[in-house]
Amino acid sequence: MSVVLPQRPATRAGRAPAVVRLLVLSTFVVILNETIMMNAIPRLMDDLGVSEASAQWVSTAFMLAMAAAIPVTGWFLQRFTTRRAYASAMGVFLAGTALAAVAPSFEVLLVGRVVQAAGTAVMMPLLMTTLLTVVPPSDRGRVMGTVTLAMSVAPALGPAVAGVVLQAGSWRLLFVVVLPVAAAVTALGLRKLDDIGEPVVSTIDWPSVAVAALGFGGVVYGLSLFGGSGGTGRGVVVVAAGLAAIAVFVLRQRRLQRTGTPLMDLRTLGHRTYRLTLALLAACFLVLLGAMILLPLYLQHLRGLSPLETGLLVMPGGLAMGLLGPTVGKVFDRFGSRVLVLPGTIGSLVALAGFTQVSPTMPYWQVLALHTLLMVSLAATFTPAFTLGMGALPQHLYSHGSSLLGTLQQVASALGTALAVTVMSSRAGHLAAEGVAAGPAQLGGMKLAFAVSAALAVVTVVLAARLPNRLPAAHD
């Protein structure tokens, strides 16, 4: 399956094309919703009469639906025009948001979250594919820097935005506030967007869709069971079943590649730079989500901060990440990846090592400084890695490369959350069994979880050292 892409005029220096700016804005709005409910769990428990384990599903169901839907986006984006894909994605997202806002029960709220996720799943691959098509290689780093706003800042700011909104009232406001913003962005996009490329008429392999949903969705669901009471054993079984389904999916795609109609073209993995950046970005998202789940627990459970205070404390790091994105892109365009990615991964390692020293009396300025260092370091890593990895692919594999990357991001995010919670809970339980008080036991669990994250950060340093500084001349 291939796409015929027309030549586009070069991007004017110093500015992203209008189509990319519109897609970044839209993607930021929809991806913000992935983590916006994290601070609303207590409100949901009180208003809808559900347990904490059940309430967590407002986030788990979103990730699960994303992991199941993203593999289809490679085919979807080749089959439909840019405007039609955008209209479909944002229309589905708006429908899910409206349903969640008026949900009379927890079950209906979950349906709304799943519908939201189905629309969100299309937006990041659509943004990446369009960017790579309309922006010349010499400017991709600078323009890709703006993508950092949607890719990493949106989920990082989700809990902070929720903390502010929840001060004003019900959890429903989280959706009521998003709905008109998303509707305005959708209307603007439909007025301004042009179609990029020509759609390719092709069939979809429905058995691949089913196996992908069972495989990637199963892995994310299984990982979500880790760390809960009695859930680890079931989680292992579900993850194993999901991995088996993914193995079947891979074998089927390899066979379909010979006929030219795979759901997800795995020939993307034949490009070494793409493989390296895929592994690096997965490890970075794993570390990021682990820190995102541990820090609120530390600040609220052990330091007694409110959700709003917690959100305000971590907000500067997320804002710094976003504001540095375009600058990081310009530096990459001029000097290449080595001056950014390796220092960035080392900075992440230093920040996580610092978090292993958390205590009941650690100064808040130190928490703020370590979190900001982590966010800035990840910003220095994300933009060059995305640009190198996706730029290493030929044009007809852009949509498949972004689809695989988006799927792996969801799996890595779920794994990061599961790993952090499991390590923390296991260590805390062990210490409690030895007679340690609840607070110090939980603190000991958090320290070990941060230490495991720091160990994973070592892997990112090794991968960063293997990345090329620039793509070969054939890609320029």
UniProtKB/TrEMBL annotation:
Alphabetical keyword list: Cell membrane, Membrane, Transmembrane, Transmembrane helix, Transport
Protein name, as recorded: DHA2 family efflux MFS transporter permease subunit
TM spans (from-to): 18-37, 57-77, 89-111, 117-135, 147-166, 172-191, 203-223, 235-252, 273-299, 311-332, 339-358, 364-392, 404-424, 444-465
Main localization (coarse): membrane
Membrane topology according to the record: Multi-pass membrane protein
Listed Gene3D superfamilies: MFS general substrate transporter like domains, Multidrug resistance protein D
Domain of life of the native organism: Bacteria
InterPro entries referenced in this protein's UniProt entry, alphabetically: EmrB-like (IPR004638), MFS (IPR011701), MFS_dom (IPR020846), MFS_trans_sf (IPR036259)
Domain Major facilitator superfamily (MFS) profile: 19-472
Location within or outside the cell: Cell membrane
Family: Belongs to the major facilitator superfamily. EmrB family.
